[in-house]
Write a structure and sequence with these properties.
single chain, about 70 residues, mainly alpha, about 80% helix, elongated
Protein backbone atom coordinates (compact mmCIF):
# COMPACT_ATOMS: atom_id res chain seq x y z
CA UNK A 1 0.00 0.00 0.00
CA UNK A 2 2.92 2.33 0.65
CA UNK A 3 4.11 1.79 -2.92
CA UNK A 4 0.68 2.70 -4.26
CA UNK A 5 0.63 5.83 -2.09
CA UNK A 6 4.00 6.90 -3.51
CA UNK A 7 2.88 6.29 -7.08
CA UNK A 8 -0.23 8.42 -6.52
CA UNK A 9 2.04 11.42 -5.90
CA UNK A 10 3.99 10.61 -9.07
CA UNK A 11 0.76 10.37 -11.05
CA UNK A 12 -0.55 13.69 -9.77
CA UNK A 13 2.77 15.49 -10.22
CA UNK A 14 2.92 14.25 -13.81
CA UNK A 15 0.52 17.05 -14.68
CA UNK A 16 3.60 19.27 -14.87
CA UNK A 17 5.02 17.34 -17.83
CA UNK A 18 2.09 15.63 -19.58
CA UNK A 19 -1.39 16.71 -20.65
CA UNK A 20 -4.29 16.42 -18.20
CA UNK A 21 -6.04 13.54 -20.03
CA UNK A 22 -2.93 11.42 -19.48
CA UNK A 23 -2.98 12.28 -15.78
CA UNK A 24 -6.65 11.32 -15.59
CA UNK A 25 -5.87 7.94 -17.17
CA UNK A 26 -2.93 7.38 -14.81
CA UNK A 27 -5.11 8.16 -11.80
CA UNK A 28 -7.87 5.90 -13.14
CA UNK A 29 -5.37 3.04 -13.46
CA UNK A 30 -4.19 3.80 -9.92
CA UNK A 31 -7.75 3.64 -8.58
CA UNK A 32 -8.23 0.22 -10.20
CA UNK A 33 -5.01 -1.04 -8.61
CA UNK A 34 -5.98 0.47 -5.24
CA UNK A 35 -9.37 -1.26 -5.27
CA UNK A 36 -7.63 -4.51 -6.13
CA UNK A 37 -5.16 -3.94 -3.27
CA UNK A 38 -8.04 -3.38 -0.85
CA UNK A 39 -9.66 -6.62 -2.02
CA UNK A 40 -6.37 -8.54 -1.65
CA UNK A 41 -5.43 -6.99 1.73
CA UNK A 42 -6.37 -10.02 3.85
CA UNK A 43 -6.50 -13.02 1.50
CA UNK A 44 -3.30 -12.29 -0.47
CA UNK A 45 -1.09 -9.79 1.41
CA UNK A 46 2.10 -10.91 -0.36
CA UNK A 47 0.74 -9.65 -3.69
CA UNK A 48 0.42 -6.03 -2.55
CA UNK A 49 4.04 -4.99 -3.18
CA UNK A 50 3.69 -6.22 -6.75
CA UNK A 51 0.75 -3.86 -7.29
CA UNK A 52 2.97 -0.93 -6.32
CA UNK A 53 5.62 -2.16 -8.75
CA UNK A 54 3.01 -2.51 -11.52
CA UNK A 55 1.73 1.00 -10.83
CA UNK A 56 5.27 2.38 -10.99
CA UNK A 57 5.90 0.46 -14.21
CA UNK A 58 2.78 1.97 -15.77
CA UNK A 59 3.98 5.43 -14.78
CA UNK A 60 7.45 4.83 -16.24
CA UNK A 61 6.06 3.55 -19.53
CA UNK A 62 3.52 6.35 -19.91
CA UNK A 63 5.48 9.37 -18.69
CA UNK A 64 9.11 8.58 -19.38
CA UNK A 65 8.53 6.29 -22.35
CA UNK A 66 6.04 8.70 -23.86
CA UNK A 67 8.42 11.62 -23.43
CA UNK A 68 11.21 9.71 -25.16
CA UNK A 69 8.98 8.43 -27.95
CA UNK A 70 7.06 11.63 -28.65
CA UNK A 71 9.32 14.28 -27.14
Amino acid sequence: MVGLACVLFLDLASGLVVDWPVVVLLVAAWVVLFVLACAWWTPHPTRLPWLGAVAFGIWVVVVIGGSVAFG
